[in-house]
């Protein structure tokens, strides 16, 4: 498709979705329309065939995040509602058939200055490079090295697995070359033929005023090949779904809600292209005892009044292994937090965060006679000091 197409065609309108449509909504709209206009369902109707092509073209662009962004940018750049520019000729200096602006200026072709810099050229370059795949010619036909799709997946980990790191099995479904036709899109027993329009290069060049674009060939959509008898499995698209299970290493220290990238574990590339990446959305189940703040684990432990008042050595559980001993000094207030070093969450460098232990002083709920007597003695021994005296004084002075 050409730049002019980009500016003229409202792919959103073609699919009947708003500009803000999600990928899912776009896919749904496309599927519905593709079924409706599919050539198999409308034998010989050139009108529906054209419609089918239009819908496919719109989906090609809008389903590809990168190209959709470029398309949006291109349209924003030139303003919306450009549908009427073709043939308005008068003001045009380019002589290209009615552009209301001078492409030479915009693209730096013949005039200096203009918008300065290759911004617009970059955008269109990006559109037509289809994500930078490399092209090799074999036997006159184009075989485009295609990077594999990025794949989204998710996994739910136990609290401990997230802290320590783990290996998980992930079942992944991705788009790949159709197995029935090996991605050619041609029915078994038939072979695609070299596109006569572009002679197999997949590219066509088009002159717009004093600027020449290289764009994907319209007839073969840049594939360099034409399919006369489409494969029945993939309906000529050459695309299929493949499912595989992979082992993915989840690094230590991941957190709930985090999305991690695992390089080259996405869909395999085609024609020598690199594999896509795998993105894993992490969910972490809460732990009944431990909490987490960043690289530290947290725990609240109960201590008796006497342990807090007199000091004590207490046992504190850790996430993995035997409890550790923590010394509570004499006169420890309720809510004080102690740090047990190296018992937290693993860091990237192999060291670990800390375990933060917060004490909660218990107040006895039931007192045996002896204990009650001892506490009454304690009250007598500490009589005279009112812990609220200062507070009351302060409140009054304000
Ligand atoms: Zn072609
Ligand atoms: Zn197929």
UniProtKB/TrEMBL annotation:
Q: Which Pfam families match?
A: DnaJ, DnaJ_C, DnaJ_CXXCXGXG
Q: Where is the CR-type domain?
A: 165-243
Q: Where are the CXXCXGXG motif repeats?
A: 178-185, 195-202, 217-224, 231-238
Q: Which GO terms describe its cellular component?
A: cytoplasm
Which residues of this UniProt protein bind Zn(2+) 2?
195, 198, 217, 220
Q: Which residues form the J domain?
A: 10-75
Q: How is its cofactor bound, per UniProt?
A: Binds 2 Zn(2+) ions per monomer.
Answer yes or no on keyword Chaperone: yes
Identify the main location. Answer: cytoplasm
Residues involved in Zn(2+) 1 binding: 178, 181, 231, 234
- State the oligomer form and interacting partners: Homodimer.
Q: Domains: what does the record tell us?
A: The J domain is necessary and sufficient to stimulate DnaK ATPase activity. Zinc center 1 plays an important role in the autonomous, DnaK-independent chaperone activity of DnaJ. Zinc center 2 is essential for interaction with DnaK and for DnaJ activity.
What protein is this chain from? Chaperone protein DnaJ
Q: What is the lineage of its organism?
A: Bacteria, Bacillati, Actinomycetota, Actinomycetes, Streptosporangiales
């Amino acid at each position: 498709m050409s730049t002019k197409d980009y500016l003229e065609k409202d792919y959103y309108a073609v699919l009947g979705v708003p500009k803000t449509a999600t990928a899912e909504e776009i896919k749904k709209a496309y599927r519905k329309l593709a079924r409706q206009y599919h050539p198999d369902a409308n034998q010989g109707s050139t009108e529906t065939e054209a419609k089918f092509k239009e819908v496919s073209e719109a989906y090609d662009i809008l389903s590809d995040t990168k190209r959709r962004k470029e398309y949006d940018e291109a349209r924003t750049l030139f303003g919306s509602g450009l549908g009427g520019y073709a043939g308005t000729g008068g003001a045009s200096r380019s002589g290209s058939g009615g552009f209301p602006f001078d492409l030479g200026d915009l693209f730096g072709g013949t005039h200096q200055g203009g918008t300065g810099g290759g911004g617009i050229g970059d955008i269109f370059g990006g559109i037509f490079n289809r994500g930078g795949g490399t092209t090799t010619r074999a036997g006159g036909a184009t075989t485009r090295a295609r990077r594999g799709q990025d794949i989204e997946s998710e996994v739910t980990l136990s609290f401990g697995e997230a802290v320590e790191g783990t290996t998980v099995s992930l079942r992944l479904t991705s788009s790949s070359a159709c197995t029935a036709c090996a991605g050619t899109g041609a029915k078994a027993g038939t072979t695609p033929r070299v596109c006569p329009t572009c002679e197999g290069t997949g590219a066509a060049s088009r002159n717009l005023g004093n600027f020449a674009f290289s764009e994907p060939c319209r007839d073969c959509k840049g594939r360099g090949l034409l399919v006369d008898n489409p494969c029945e499995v993939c309906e000529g698209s050459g695309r299929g779904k493949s499912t595989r299970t992979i082992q993915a290493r989840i690094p230590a220290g991941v957190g709930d809600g985090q999305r991690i990238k695992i390089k080259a574990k996405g869909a395999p590339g085609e024609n020598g292209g690199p594999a896509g990446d795998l993105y894993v959305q992490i969910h972490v189940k809460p732990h009944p005892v431990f909490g987490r703040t960043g690289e530290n684990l947290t725990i609240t432990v109960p201590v008796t009044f006497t342990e807090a008042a007199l000091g004590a050595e207490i046992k504190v559980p850790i996430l993995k292994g035997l409890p550790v001993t923590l010394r509570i000094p004499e006169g420890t207030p309720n809510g004080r937090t102690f740090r047990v070093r190296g018992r937290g969450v693993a860091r990237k460098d192999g060291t670990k965060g800390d375990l933060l232990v917060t004490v909660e002083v218990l107040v006895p709920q039931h007192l045996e006679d002896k204990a009650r007597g001892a506490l009454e003695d304690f009250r007598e021994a500490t009589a005279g000091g009112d812990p609220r005296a200062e507070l009351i004084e302060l409140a009054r002075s304000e």
